[in-house]
Amino acid sequence: MDRLSRDQEDIAGVFKRMNYAGVRIVTLSEGEVSHLHVGLKGTMNALFLKDLAEKTHRGLRGRVEQGKSGGGNAYGYDVVRRLDANGEPIRGDRTINLHEADVVRRIFRDFAAGLGPRAIAFRLNDEGISAPGSGAWGFSTINGNRLRGTGILNNEMYVGRLVWNRQRFIKDPDTGKRQARPNPDSEWVIQEVPELRIVDQDLWDAVKARQASVSASSNTRDTSSPDHFREKRRPRYLFSGLSKCGCCGGGYSMISGALLGCSTACNKGTCDNRTNMRREELERRVLDALRHHLMDPDLFAEFCTAFTTEMNQLRIELPRVLWRRNDPRGKKDS
């Protein structure tokens, strides 16, 4: 039964729908699956996943306490691939990438000298310097989040300090997407790795001082409010996340209180589209087009036919996609 799902909610939903359709679930080990199997085995399978996650976490913690990587790799470092005496791969070792290390030091020097993250990103993109993940440099790539230790300017690895377990990830039950949640400072694992230092202490301190200065000058809100973080979230509008740049395909998002613009052009400088539009004007044009064109009886009938065809095709493909997601063999074949 765990081949279907190890999630209690998912397996209960599958069983309910199969039962409604008059389809029995039969396994080699349990025979015909009943409500009792769903309740007990569903709980056991969920506990198995929880126990596996805890064991994996303990293993990663032990690796980090030895000064090795706990997963992932930061810009400026290469993964060391070598075997031990028994021919087994040695995991978690890293070495400094000299070319990327020069780029990291340049970013720190430019920021300390007064350049902003967006200006730094524009320069790096103009010079064709590869960014992390082989993408383009952006504001968030450099600036990141100080509290979470993300972004080039906040990565303590560059001063020889490995910080692990800053945050945990929880899956949103509605969207299936992972969301990061910060862990208390007491749960962080900090290990000194001086051999991996890229930035000297004076330069690091200069950057931290400028970050504090910029933060103090821009932070005029009352952070003692319990709704502080919710208030800082950008409001969602009618077409939030749906507007795209016609030149590069990047998102068209709010760049000021009333204007929409190309996010790629604004944050990375790799798109030449500098056309901005008022949000109210965009919404008016789209709604007018829908009202005058889609509401035409012939066009509406054509839309309904195309929509129904597409939805039926997706419903046909859904079981196969779900099976591949839950079956390791399916993942290898896909």
From TrEMBL:
Q: Which Pfam families match?
A: Recombinase (PF07508), Zn_ribbon_recom (PF13408)
Gene3D superfamilies in UniProt: Putative Large Serine Recombinase, Chain B, Domain 2 (3.90.1750.20)
Recombinase domain sequence ranges: 74-219
Q: Name one GO molecular function term.
A: DNA binding
Top-rank taxon: Bacteria
Its name, as the record gives it, is Recombinase domain-containing protein
Task: State the organism of origin.
Answer: Acetobacter pasteurianus NBRC 3278
